[in-house]
Each structure stands twice: as structure tokens, then as C-alpha cells.
Amino acid sequence: MTPYLLLALAAASGQITPVQPLPSGNPSPPPITVSEESQVMVPVNGIFAAIAARDGQMAVQYLRAQGGATIANEAADGSSKIVYRTWPEFVAGLKAGPERHEERLYDPAIEIDGNIAYVWGRYTFEIDGNIHHCGYDHFDLVREEGRWKIANITWSSRTTGCEE
């Protein structure tokens, strides 16, 4: 018997289930959805890009006009000094220079409630590939006119316990 005749006999006896036709294809790709968390991270990553570029003006687009930065500098002896910088002071600190700066945020926690959000996580700050200091970053964000902006940044800064 030929293979076609065997196939026909098997189909007639119910041993083979007929193949169902495939559904019609959709010529358009599925829509791309962007998670709320990834939208919240846009200004945070923008600030890190401005730090790496050492370009204060690049940072301005991610900052809400009213706000600022608070730094808790921790000394090796456990003492701490709190420093507040307005956004103009913060931006002025991002100046061009020969060293390569990079800030890395590890496993950030992101919480969102309507038009407010925060991002919190451990970070390291590197100069020319070497860890200079570390701590925790805390970004307060608000959504205005559909865009997330950083209202405030608070971070701790220490030079011990910084291994990745």
C-alpha cells in the first residue's frame, strides 16, 4: 500500500484527527505597553545619565521646579552631616571634568499611588570605575501633565561597606 492510502484508511477509521485551519494572522504588531514602573524610572535614569555626562542642564528636564536634594553624609565614626541643596545648586554640581562618573542603583523598590511615587534603593557611585562612595537613594516623584518629575532626592553617603 502506498503511504497515501494508509493515511486515508487511518483517517477514515478515526485514528487521525483532522487538522484544524490556523487562525488568520494579524498584520499589525501588538501594541507596546509601558509599565508604570518603567515610566517612573525615566527621570531617575535621566538623572543618572546627566551624572555620567556631567551635564547639569541635562538634569533639569527631570526635576520639578520646586524641590531639592538632601544628603546625609556619614563619616566612618558614625557621625552624620545633613546637607540640603536647591535644584540650581544640585545642577551646578554636575560639571564637566576629566573623571568618568557613574551611579548604579541596585534592585530599586518602586511604589506608586496615583500621581505620586517613590524609588528607593542601594547605590554605588564610581569615579573612573572605582567605587567612591555608596548608600541609599530615595527619589520622590510626582506626575504632572502626564510626565513624571523628581520632586526631591534624598540619599545617604558613606565610604565603608560599599562592596557590590
Account of the protein in words:
There is one protein chain. This protein has a single domain (36-157), classed as Nuclear Transport Factor 2, Chain: A (Roll), CATH 3.10.450. A hairpin with a 2-residue loop joins β3 and β4 (116-127). With 164 residues, the chain is α+β, with helices and mostly antiparallel strands. The protein contains four helices and six strands. The protein has a six-stranded mixed beta sheet with strand order 2-1-6-5-4-3. It starts with a helix and ends in a 7-residue tail after the last strand.
Note the main attributes of this structure:
single chain, 4 helices, six-stranded mixed beta sheet, alpha+beta, Nuclear Transport Factor 2, Chain: A, 164 residues
